[in-house]
Design brief:
It is a single chain. 69% of the residues lie in helices and 5% in strands. It has 376 residues and is mainly alpha-helical. It has 2 domains: 261 residues, no CATH class; 98 residues, D-Maltodextrin-Binding Protein, domain 2 (3-Layer(aba) Sandwich), CATH 3.40.190. The chain has a 4-stranded mixed β-sheet, sandwiched between helices. Strand 1, helix 3 and strand 2 form a beta-alpha-beta unit. The protein is elongated, with a radius of gyration of 29 Å. The two termini are 25 Å apart.
């Protein structure tokens, strides 16, 4: 009989929150567009940091085209031309080049402005290019007979595809996870204010007290509906994040699929992460919604809940320890990185899920107590 009461409450709450087709489309499109836009912004920033332009200046009586043929393949981000030190200084100071190499009689000067340099890779490549230039110029000027004995320049990338993906996750994973969780928290804040606090503000709480079902059963029905909607928004956000990665970071996406293909239940892992996050977020905002009788106060304290969610999501960026992968909301980045390292086990995620269920159960007890206090 009690189970029927719970099912009745769930159906009733679902009817209250049921959306029109336009509202449903809006609810699904807003998180998707938001996360896609964020993914594009982050990929643009990463590309901007990795991309640079450099210039090599040779004396007027030197053939820059010959050096271009020798080095352009190994250093595609550098251009080669004839010019003076003054021209190079002007070009770098005006921001038209991140760095410049000026070849003189006995010196190769590397010019850069640390205040406007956007890529540390530019300076590293400039130093490597300077060494290669010194070998080529020496061989051409002093050891022309032995010039052909010098080995060709060969670029070897020591990092694996998994290393590149881990670096990508370090840069954007925490931020993307935080945005997804904040989007879920925003929905939770709205739902708790409308379905939990709203019962008191609309003065319909007294009718709930007269219902045959216990207040705790009614609250459980409300929380389960809220949990379902929060979980759905998290899944939509995750799909949008994966789509954004496939569109704007195809190399990293291919590396993820290569490494992730060996892990059974990749999609299942994402679902568990989102479900654990939805449980914690529902627990936080159901307690906040049950504690107050006015939506304004609920919204005020919900801001504290948003801060808590955001801090938890980016915690791995500040705490370099494996223990954070057991904490709900904080386990997003460490678990994704463990998959890419081929070190993934289900123990951390099941531990985090157990903690989430415990927090959800405690929130039910606390929220029910707050509701019973209101009925008195």
């Amino acid at each position: 009989m009690r189970r029927n009461h719970v099912l009745h409450v769930i159906k009733s709450e679902w009817k209250k929150t049921r959306k029109t087709p336009v509202q449903l489309v809006t609810m699904l499109l807003v998180p998707m567009i938001s996360v896609l836009f964020l993914s594009w912004c982050l990929s643009y920033v990463v590309t901007l940091v990795d991309r640079y332009s450099g210039t090599v200046y040779f004396p007027e009586d030197f053939s820059a085209e010959e050096m271009k043929e020798e080095l352009s393949e190994s250093y595609p981000d550098f251009s080669f031309r004839n010019g003076t030190l003054e021209e190079a200084t002007t070009r770098v100071s005006n921001g038209k080049a991140d760095c410049a190499l000026v070849v003189e009689d006995k010196t190769i000067r590397i010019l850069y402005d640390s205040s406007i340099l956007t890529s540390s890779q530019a300076l590293k490549d400039a130093k490597d290019l300077g060494i290669d230039l010194s070998y080529l110029l020496e061989g051409e000027k002093y050891y022309s007979d032995a010039y052909d004995l010098y080995p060709e320049i060969e670029n070897i990338d020591m990092s694996s595809s998994a290393d590149r993906v881990i670096g990508y996750i370090d840069r954007v994973g925490g931020v993307v996870g935080m945005i997804i969780f904040l989007m879920m928290a925003s929905n939770a804040m709205t739902l708790s204010a409308r379905t939990i606090t709203g019962e008191k503000e609309r003065q319909t709480f007294d009718t709930l007290v007269l219902c045959p079902a216990d207040l705790s059963k009614i609250l459980l029905g409300k929380e389960l509906v809220m949990l379902a909607e929060i979980f759905l928004s998290g899944i939509i956000g995750s799909i949008a994040a994966i789509g954004g990665m496939a569109i704007w970071s195809p190399k990293e996406f291919d590396a993820v699929t290569e490494n992730g293909a060996e892990v059974a239940g990749w999609f299942f892992v994402i679902v568990l992460l989102i479900f654990a996050a939805a449980l914690v977020i529902t627990a936080i905002f159901s307690v906040i919604g049950s504690a107050f009788a006015q939506t304004k106060k609920t919204s005020l304290f919900s801001s504290c809940g948003m801060v808590l969610v955001s801090i938890s999501a980016i915690l791995p960026s500040f705490i370099d320890t494996g223990i954070v992968k057991y904490f709900p909301l904080s386990d997003w980045t460490p678990i994704l990185k463990s998959i890419c390292k081929d070190e993934f086990t289900y123990t951390p995620i099941f531990t985090a899920l157990a903690i989430s269920l415990l927090l959800f159960g405690l929130s039910m007890i606390l929220s029910s107590g707050l509701w019973e206090r209101t009925s008195e």
